[in-house]
């Protein structure tokens, strides 16, 4: 298998494996593709992802094949550029870049200007005729290489640079002259030798292989692991390495570097969008060292900025760039995120990829591109990440609310966030664990901050542009972000900060508006999102292409209304126990539980009946004839038990029974393992009067609402935690009997279904038999996962994270269905259920019903519907359409 692929110059670019991101990584595959369509790409080569996996698995050693293939590929680069690597007179310099299958912003470090040493720096100075440029490049190289490859703290070098500037009375880096940089190079080399006990490597081949090893190793760095876990990227993918001839954006005022998008990644607007810097090298834009300039004249004018746009300062290079933008969009048929460098007036493309975008932009672009004839409806449906819709379904700031604006930054990622200020990532994570809403405020963020960004509701940075680390990562995560708010200054030592002219302390509440860039004091009220427009159009397309129905898990009329607004086509799970917690009812529930005998229970249930009937009637009215699955009481009774003395006293007053008696009764009911104890249908078997009351409430409500006109109600009564056919047979007979009684009393009848949850492995195995009693199955995959894996959902957080890190489960099995294991149980139950009853209705009501990957599985096994919490309904509609395509 070929280990290295060349690109640029006269390289062939024809091999299918070279175009395959799984082999050459996203960056490598796209560099080759750009070169193949004739775009100006500096020549280079890509080492395959397979080699990084081999290297990490086989004791971090390079194979002889790889060594000779790299040498050969390097010759291709040398011949194309017409310079030799390590040549003291006219050296070839390269960058060494990582590139995994999917883009992992900032996860892997790039080394630029590799190939410089004490001799080649002289050659670079001579051939470029620019001594300052040569020494500046060399010091950048030492600094980057020492940080990324040799593992030294980059602060050591920055400190030396600061001191050098102070000594000379300089304010900015641009004031340093050639001799200053040369002096710094000596200092930098001394630092390396002091720290490592050996000199900075002068052998260019040693430099190259050191950098390649560092890229390979970075795949297993802690920050890469965190990113992989958050984004469900398997460890086996590995990363490719790209070695590419350098082009220089730091060769004076006709040189520049920039980052651009072919459309606006925040709004989706069809306008070139990006940032650039004159006389600078790649990382300078992203790292936020200097504040970048606007790309287009329109954007500059819009922002009221002074420094010229690229369109104005370099019209020729900009014209060329615009041509490339259009070419790339029509080639990739998607919005592209581009890195480019202009070396002495000539444009070079260094990267392209499908750009990350906000959910709003994703929707707009998908819908617009169908209109432009660039893509079809199916592609548009597949283009939008269902989970990203989540961003749009949540509230934004109320435009009429008073805003106490402290300062303004760049609108880097939309949405509104309020929370307490936290000044570092660890604190963010800690406070968020205590259920506090926090806003992470940093000078700028780096990959080390990712866990804190994830924990925070929003992110505010003092430095960095629209393409800074904070902005890119926040957009990807769907967190609101305001970046480059220069009105923010932080005093980390005292845990205080200044925003605008206000002094604040960590813990004070602020609000961010990621759409306008405003930072406000206190909490600002929000409003519900607008779901028409592009959202409505895409949802309509999705509905047209999906096979499965989408229902909701809801038990309050408010939730039902929300879910219907989001397009729910019924209720897949109404948990009746949630209604038992209402303030007025809990004492009746407790009276029922703690009653000494059936008579006592019946008396308490009498009090609950009208309340339950009222709940169900409201829900049936709201759902207007759509199917409603109502689950009879499921949780262990101890969940309702009084625990505090006041609660026992209140109950004692209510019932006229002594506190001691109640406490004794409570301790009699104590269970060691309640989740596997007296719960679910076991309650119905032992206390049939509870299920009788619930069934009565359901049928009375159904008759009442049907009697009001409109669509007839068809209740689906669901019996939980069934393991045997006999359990279901007994309870079904009970439900049928109550139905008959109610219909006789009301002098009417209604259609209804009795069915069961499949949430125990035994039930899945016995599904063929159970289906004789069940008109429908609803897969309760939360409990099914819990019981199949033998993992308690409530205790899993202690170890599941590590399980996912170690690849034992690829994702948290409570979030995304364990298709390999639990999936088999589902598949088997579907098969056996259908063979008994060909028209059995099949659905899923666990959390997995709102998880796109699990929804894909539900489509495969042929379920009739998925049921998701109200805010997940649109996600499920889109995911179901994607699964069907
Ligand atoms: P990342 O994946 O973090 O963006 P990259 O490998 O794309 O890392 O490189 C980081 C920066 O270095 C980019 O701005 C890129 O444009 C610049 N760069 C990479 N290779 C070269 C090169 N051969 N010549 C000039 N600049 C380069
Ligand atoms: Mg890049
Ligand atoms: Mg359950």
TrEMBL record:
All residue ranges annotated as the Pyruvate phosphate dikinase AMP/ATP-binding domain in the record: 24-59, 65-303, 318-367
PROSITE patterns: PEP_ENZYMES_PHOS_SITE (PS00370)
Enzyme nomenclature, EC number: 2.7.9.1
Domain of life: Bacteria
Requisite cofactors: Mg(2+)
InterPro entries: ATP_grasp_subdomain_1, PEP-util_enz_mobile_dom, PEP_util_AS, PEP_util_C, Phosphohistidine_dom_sf, PPDK_AMP/ATP-bd, Pyruvate_phosphate_dikinase, Pyrv/PenolPyrv_kinase-like_dom
Keywords: ATP-binding, Kinase, Magnesium, Metal-binding, Nucleotide-binding, Pyruvate, Transferase
Keyword match Membrane: no
Keyword flag Nucleotide-binding: yes
Class of this enzyme: transferase
Annotated spans, Disordered: 1-23
PEP-utilising enzyme C-terminal domain location: 533-883
Domain annotation PEP-utilising enzyme mobile: ranges: 436-517
Swiss-Prot/TrEMBL catalytic activity: pyruvate + phosphate + ATP = phosphoenolpyruvate + AMP + diphosphate + H(+)
GO MF assignments: pyruvate, phosphate dikinase activity
Biased composition (Basic and acidic residues): 12-22
Entry's family note: Belongs to the PEP-utilizing enzyme family.
Its job: Catalyzes the reversible phosphorylation of pyruvate and phosphate.
Protein name: Pyruvate, phosphate dikinase
Organism: Aurantiacibacter sediminis
């Amino acid at each position: 298998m070929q280990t290295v692929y060349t690109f640029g110059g006269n390289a062939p670019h024809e091999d299918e494996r070279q175009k395959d991101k799984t082999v050459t990584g996203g960056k490598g595959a796209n560099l080759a593709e750009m070169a193949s369509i004739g775009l100006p790409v500096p020549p280079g080569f890509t080492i395959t992802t397979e080699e990084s996996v081999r290297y990490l698995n086989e004791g971090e050693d390079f194979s002889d094949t790889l060594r000779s293939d790299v040498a050969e590929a390097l010759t291709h680069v040398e011949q194309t550029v017409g310079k030799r690597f390590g040549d003291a007179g006219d050296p070839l310099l390269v960058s060494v870049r990582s590139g995994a299958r999917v883009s992992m912003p900032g996860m892997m470090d790039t080394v630029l200007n590799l190939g410089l040493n004490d001799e080649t720096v002289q050659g670079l100075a001579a051939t470029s005729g620019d001594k300052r440029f040569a020494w500046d490049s060399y010091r950048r190289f030492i600094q980057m290489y020492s940080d990324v490859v040799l593992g030294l703290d980059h602060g050591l070098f920055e400190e030396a640079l600061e001191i050098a500037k102070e000594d000379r009375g300089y304010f900015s880096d641009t004031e340093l002259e050639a001799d200053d940089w040369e002096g710094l190079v000596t200092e930098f080399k001394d630092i390396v030798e002091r720290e490592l006990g050996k000199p900075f490597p002068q052998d260019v081949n040693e430099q190259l292989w050191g950098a390649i090893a560092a890229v390979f190793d970075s795949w297993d760095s802690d920050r890469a692991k965190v990113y992989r876990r958050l984004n469900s990227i398997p460890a086996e993918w590995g990363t490719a390495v790209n070695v590419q001839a350098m082009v220089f954006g730091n060769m004076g005022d006709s040189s520049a570097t920039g980052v651009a998008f072919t459309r606006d990644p925040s709004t989706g607007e069809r306008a070139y969008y990006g940032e650039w810097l004159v006389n600078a090298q790649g990382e300078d834009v992203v790292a936020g060292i200097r504040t970048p300039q606007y790309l287009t004249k329109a954007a500059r004018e819009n922002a009221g900025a002074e420094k010229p746009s690229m369109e104005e300062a370099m019209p020729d290079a900009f014209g060329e760039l615009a041509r490339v933008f259009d070419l790339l969009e029509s080639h990739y048929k998607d919005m592209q995120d581009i890195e480019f460098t202009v070396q002495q007036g000539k444009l070079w493309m260094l990267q392209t990829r499908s750009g990350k975008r906000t959910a709003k932009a994703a929707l707009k672009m998908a819908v617009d591109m169908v209109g432009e004839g660039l893509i079809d409806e199916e592609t548009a449906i597949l283009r939008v990440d269902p989970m990203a819709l989540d961003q749009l379904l949540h509230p934004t700031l109320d435009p009429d609310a008073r805003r106490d604006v402290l300062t303004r930054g760049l609108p880097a990622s939309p949405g509104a966030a309020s929370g307490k200020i936290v000044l570092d990532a660890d604190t963010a994570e800690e406070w968020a664990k205590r259920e506090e809403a926090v806003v992470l405020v940093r000078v700028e963020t780096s990959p080390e901050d990712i866990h804190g960004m994830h924990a925070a509701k929003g992110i505010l940075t003092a430095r960095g542009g629209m393409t800074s680390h904070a902005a890119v990562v926040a957009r990807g995560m769907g967190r609101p972000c305001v970046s480059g708010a220069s009105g923010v200054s932080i005093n980390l030592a005292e845990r205080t900060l200044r925003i605008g002219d206000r002094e604040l302390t960590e813990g004070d509440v602020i609000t961010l508006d990621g759409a306008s860039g405003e930072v406000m004091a206190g909490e600002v009220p929000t409003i519900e999102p607008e779901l028409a427009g592009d959202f409505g159009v895409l949802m309509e397309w999705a509905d047209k292409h999906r096979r499965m129905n989408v229902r909701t898990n809801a038990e309050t009329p408010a939730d039902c209304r929300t879910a219907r607004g989001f397009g729910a086509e019924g209720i897949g799970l109404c948990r009746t126990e949630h209604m038992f917690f209402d303030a007025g009812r809990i004492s009746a529930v407790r009276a029922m539980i703690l009653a000494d005998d059936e008579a006592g229970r019946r008396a308490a249930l009498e009090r609950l009946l009208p309340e339950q009937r009222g709940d169900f009637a409201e829900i049936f009215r709201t759902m207007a004839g759509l199917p409603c699955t109502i689950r009879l009481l499921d949780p262990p009774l101890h969940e309702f038990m009084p625990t505090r003395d006041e609660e026992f006293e209140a109950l004692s007053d209510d019932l006229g029974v002594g506190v001691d008696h109640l406490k004794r009764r409570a301790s009699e009911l104590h269970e060691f393992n309640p989740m596997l104890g007296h719960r679910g249908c076991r309650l119905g078997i032992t206390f049939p009067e509870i299920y009788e009351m619930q069934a009565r409430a359901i049928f009375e409500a159904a008759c009442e609402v049907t009697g009001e006109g409109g669509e007839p109600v068809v209740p689906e009564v669901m019996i939980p935690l069934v393991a045997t056919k006999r359990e279901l047979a007994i309870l079904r007979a009970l439900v049928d009997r109550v139905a008959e009684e109610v219909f006789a009393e009301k002098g009417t009848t209604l259609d209804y279904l009795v069915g069961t949850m499949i949430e125990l492995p035994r039930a899945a195995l016995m599904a063929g038999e159970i289906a004789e009693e069940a008109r429908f199955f609803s897969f309760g995959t939360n409990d099914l996962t819990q019981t199949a894996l033998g993992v308690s959902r409530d205790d899993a957080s202690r170890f599941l994270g590590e399980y996912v890190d170690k690849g034992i489960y690829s994702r948290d099995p409570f979030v995304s269905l364990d298709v390999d294991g639990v999936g088999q149980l589902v598949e088997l139950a579907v098969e056996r259920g259908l063979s008994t009853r060909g028209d059995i209705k099949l659905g899923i009501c666990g959390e997995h019903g709102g998880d796109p990957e699990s929804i894909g599985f539900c489509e495969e096994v042929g379920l009739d519907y998925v049921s998701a919490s109200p805010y997940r309904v649109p996600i499920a509609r889109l995911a179901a359409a994607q699964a069907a395509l």
